[in-house]
Amino acid sequence: MSFLKKKTAILLLFTLVLSSLAGCGKKEEEPYVSPNFTNESEDNQKYEPEPINASVTDATPGDALVYDKESTGEMSEAVRASLTDALEAGVYENDTYYNSLAGLKISVADTDWAFYDAEGVAAATGLSTEDVNNFWYGYKTTDDAETSYCAIVYNKVTGSNVVISYVNPSVTLYDEITAEDYLSMALNRYDGLLIKRVTFLGDQWACLDIPADQNPAGRRICYAKRSGKVLVLVTFTMQEDQDIADAQQIFTRLQ
After folding, report:
1. CA 220 to CA 215: how far, in whole Å?
2. Mean pLDDT of the chain
3. Which of 7, 86, 149, 242 has CA atoms 20 to 30 A from the CA of 96?
4. CB of 73 within 8 A of CB of 216?
5. For residue 147, what are the CA distances in angstroms to 31, 98, 107, 189, 196?
6. Strand ranges (E), 60-156
7. What is the pTM for the complete model shown?
């Protein structure tokens, strides 16, 4: 594959990760069980973005995650797991999410923030609930998809959200791409932006900070770093005048 084709593939993948999200979490009625799935199943088809006119700036303000007052804001019992499971997607316990690959912990106890369950993540990302659960339970891994969604946490008052996701560069045949290279793919869509290096949770991350006047969904700040074979992305989309510090306060470094 030529470098140009590789770059185009990466850009489309980046577009998918940073594209605006829609939908809201709903409590699952039944616990998830070991799947019996095939790729031919209509319910298990992965979301494929349209390559025509794909752009990280195509989103409209209504596409951003918005709090649904009918949502319980609770994680389903089905996605709770023992912290010793060490699943790629991370694990939840009560109001806390642990992700050893990303090296972070998110706690929403006594805050205005809440987690989306698997159904909510599926609705927000265009995947099926089955796809999300298969990854969360380890029936699928980062080897099975270009982008894997680990968690979405949203603010029940403002609608701001944070998405934890992985990108597997080997799927695009561009194994050597760095976090800086990946974020740089979007620079030509914005005016005057640069990739920066920031310290987050005591580690160095590449950062693309897109101001609200250049992104209809709101200010979007994407942190990226390499962890083994995958890129870890922490993508903040801040609504109204909410500061990123309000979202960062629910994060701590996983020791």
Report:
1. 7
2. 75
3. 242
4. no
5. 25, 19, 24, 21, 23
6. 91-93, 96-99, 104-107, 113-115, 147-155
7. 0.73
